[in-house]
Specification:
With 264 residues, the chain is mostly helical. It has one domain. It contains 11 helices and no strands.
Length: 264
């Protein structure tokens, strides 16, 4: 459902740059499959998985795609998805930067729905807290199993302790940021502005929520993967904003029609 919703919203926006809504549906698999592959590959390369590490032959291939065991990373999906979109736009001879502006809000819509899935599954769980909206996870959840494996919970417990619902925090933040980007898209001053703004504001919210998560061990320097990636993304977003503002172009439906007429 989330991919259909995000794609439908992008299909409405893409008309503003003179492209047909059908282009989004043609592009969907080019973004979705590489994005999923990137999310899984990043997780396995960085964090590993017992079932994957110990498997051999065909079982290793099965373990690599066993998403039902958990293990995907949002930033990996971004890298894989963008690679797929670049390939699609190159084959269709479509300017990729305006398309990425179109897709940026929808990417965060997908993130918002995806984090609800994380909450239901029990991954990406938060630290202990005593806030009124704190949550507990039952014995059949991933959260419960992971806390038992870390020695933080007795296997006979009825549920985990009270934890920050970091998945819900992430979901709400993503929907708010998606709204901001969708509104900004209508007033974007140049191509690339929406993409760069997303690269700046998403990591800021992600960085704050990461400090409340308890499911991923930090690097020795004290920063988690996502926090390091967030800082790099902010730097790239600021640099991209400066670059695109100096090479100022703005693709609209009118300019796209004019370019098409000149080509014809």
């Amino acid at each position: 459902m989330w991919s259909v919703t995000a794609s439908w919203l992008a299909a409405q926006r893409i008309q503003k740059i003179g492209q047909s809504p059908e282009l989004i549906w043609d592009m969907l698999m080019w973004a979705l499959i590489p994005g999923l592959a990137g999310a899984r590959a990043y997780f396995l390369l960085r964090h590993g998985h017992p079932a994957f590490s110990s498997a051999t032959g065909m079982n290793k291939l099965i373990a690599a795609v066993a998403l039902w065991d958990g293990g995907i990373v949002f930033y990996g999906s971004v890298l894989g998805g963008i690679a797929g979109i670049f390939t699609f736009c190159s084959l269709r001879k479509i300017p990729v930067v305006p398309v990425l502006d179109v897709l940026a809000p929808s990417l965060l819509v997908g993130e918002g729905f995806g984090r609800i899935g994380c909450f239901l599954y029990g991954c990406c769980y938060g630290r202990a807290c005593d806030l009124p909206w704190a949550v507990r996870f039952p014995p059949d959840s991933l959260t419960f199993r992971k806390m038992v494996e870390k020695g933080l919970l007795d296997p006979g417990s009825e549920a985990t302790g009270w934890l920050h619902p970091t998945q819900i925090y992430s979901s709400l933040a993503a929907f708010v940021l998606a709204t901001i980007l969708a509104v900004y898209f209508r007033r974007r001053p140049f191509d690339g502005a929406v993409l760069c703004l997303a690269a700046i504001i998403y990591p800021v919210s992600r960085y704050g929520i990461e400090s409340l998560r308890a499911d991923i061990d930090p690097f020795q320097v004290g920063l988690k993967d996502a926090e390091i990636f967030s800082l790099a993304l902010i730097a790239a977003g600021i640099g991209g904003m400066v670059y695109f503002s100096r090479h100022r172009t703005l693709t609209t439906a009118a300019s796209a029609r004019s370019a098409g007429n000149q080509t014809a």
